[in-house]
Design brief:
about 475 residues, about 70% helix, 23 helices, 2 domains
């Protein structure tokens, strides 16, 4: 019915306007406010070239040791300055400013969300929570094959809460501690950890930035909204993505036992309570978003206040456990130096946060020029949503999944909930195909330098690709009602 279609379009337009008014994530491409199409203009070609040049520097970070945030931040400034120059010569004075401000609002929401999560992770690290877990695993005296499965399993279930990068680094420390000179075990275990961490992060907004981006975007379909709990429909497909390559690689793990270690591990005072407060913060963000319709970042910042008040309590009571005897009796290290929350804020991954700023502004600029509309037409109208979303995952193995997913969210193609979950899955696990395809893989190449390598990972890429394809088929089969 033409009338019904018009009403539906009006409702969609009204919803998009309400998202903008609430400063939630919305497409930074304002089709109705885009008076110039610069896709065939020198400014468009220059912006595209600058972005690709900047990303070449990002991909070469391992060799140049140039932090990835620097080239994309510079590129973002040049791209928007170029756009603004062209617009001013055509008599437009406010359109570019409004678009940039909107991109900054998008970035601010995601940056503050990630900053709170990173602060909690750093606080738990400072209280030796992860160190105790590492030592506990090392002292179990497990064989290489058992340790292969235990580290993979823990990576899969910890990454949805602690994020895939932190989880991968923790499990890799365990593998290096017991692996010794057995490079074959270390290589296979590291590949397994990367795949498991990325798979575990795909079904939780707290496990991967791309999943977080989709959750905060509030993707609306005519039938339903993708909320926090909807992502758990990806649990079994993500599990399949990890289990298939893990089973095949596990057959090649040496059937040996490492030398037993006798390290003793204790935490600092307040460690368990900080873990509880982090879980409470996650619950607060979910409740604020799902039931109160507030942006998730409001819940996260409220949770940061929990940690601030607890830090105040630790400072006021720090003399309680200063004596070695009291600390030993309590099962943790005494805390004569006061807990400082802002030192944990300072230890956040600022390079990653500024990299994300550069990506948001660069991709937003290319979208404002009109390139993402062209890409959306080719991928989602000519190829079809399923093919396009599978391609997104493969692209994320070469180019970081953050700009790829942000580009998709900027295009905002009209898809079903099943398709949005599919692109969330593929962008999350596609990076496992290559060691450089995810932050977890890049970090482990540095941590296990010479033992976990690009070509060592590449050798097992067909096995990982088998899990990638199987996870897609599992999602399409299990969640057929969402398509």
């Amino acid at each position: 019915m033409p009338g019904a279609g018009k009403i539906l379009n009006m409702l969609r337009a009204r919803h998009l306007l309400s998202i903008f008014a609430l400063q939630l994530l919305a497409a930074p491409v304002f089709a109705s406010e885009e008076p110039l199409n610069l896709t065939d203009h020198w400014a468009g070609y220059l912006s595209l070239g600058i972005f690709f040049l900047a990303y070449l520097f990002v991909m070469a970070e391992e060799f140049t040791h140039l932090r990835k945030s620097k080239p994309v931040m510079l590129a973002a400034g040049i791209i928007w300055a170029t756009i603004a120059l062209v617009y001013r010569t055509h008599g437009y004075t406010t359109e570019v400013e409004h678009a940039v401000r909107h991109n900054l609002l998008e970035y601010a929401e995601l940056m503050l969300f990630l900053l709170v999560a990173m602060t909690y992770i750093n606080a738990m690290d400072e209280r030796l929570v992860f160190e105790k877990l590492r030592i506990w695993l090392v002292r179990k005296g497990l064989g290489f094959r058992a340790l292969f499965w235990v580290t993979g399993l823990l990576a899969f279930f910890i990454s949805p809460i602690a994020d895939n990068l932190t989880t991968a680094l923790l499990m890799c420390a365990v593998v290096l501690a017991v692996g010794g000179d057995n490079n074959r075990f270390i290589l296979l275990a590291c590949i397994n950890i990367v795949v498991a961490s990325n798979a575990g992060g795909a079904f939780s907004p707290f496990g991967d930035i791309t999943t977080l981006m989709v959750w905060q975007k509030e993707i609306i379909t005519p039938q339903e909204m993708i909320d926090f709990w909807s992502f758990f429909a990806l649990f079994i497909p993500a599990l399949v993505n990890w289990l298939i390559p893990a089973f095949i690689m596990g057959l090649a793990v040496p059937n040996e036992h490492p030398e037993p270690l006798t390290e003793a591990g204790v935490t600092r005072r307040g460690a368990k309570r900080i873990v509880f407060l982090f879980l409470l913060t996650i619950a607060t963000a979910v409740v604020f978003h799902n039931f109160l319709r507030l942006p998730p970042v409001v819940g996260m910042l409220t949770g940061l206040a929990y940690l601030q008040f607890f830090g105040y309590y630790l400072r006021r009571t720090r003399t309680r456990d200063e004596s070695p005897e009291a600390a030993t009796d309590a099962g943790h290290i005494g805390d004569p130096v006061a807990f400082d929350i802002f030192s944990n804020v300072a230890r956040a991954e600022w390079d990653t946060l500024f990299f994300f700023y550069g990506v948001v502004l660069c991709v937003g600029g290319l979208g404002f020029i009109g390139y993402l509309s062209m890409a959306s037409d080719i991928m989602y109208h000519q190829w079809g949503a399923t093919t396009a979303n599978i391609t997104v995952g493969i692209m994320s193995a070469i180019v970081d999944n953050i700009p790829v997913m942000f580009a998709v969210l900027t295009m905002l193609p009209e898809m079903s909930a099943g398709q949005w979950l599919l692109v969330t899955l593929t962008a999350g696990v596609g990076g496992s195909l290559l060691s450089i395809g995810s932050a977890a893989g890049v970090a482990l190449m540095g941590q296990a330098r010479g033992k976990y390598t690009f070509f060592g990972h590449l050798k097992w890429a067909p096995v990982i690709a088998l899990g990638y394809g199987a996870s897609i088929l599992t999602h399409i089969w299990l969640n057929d009602h969402l398509f």
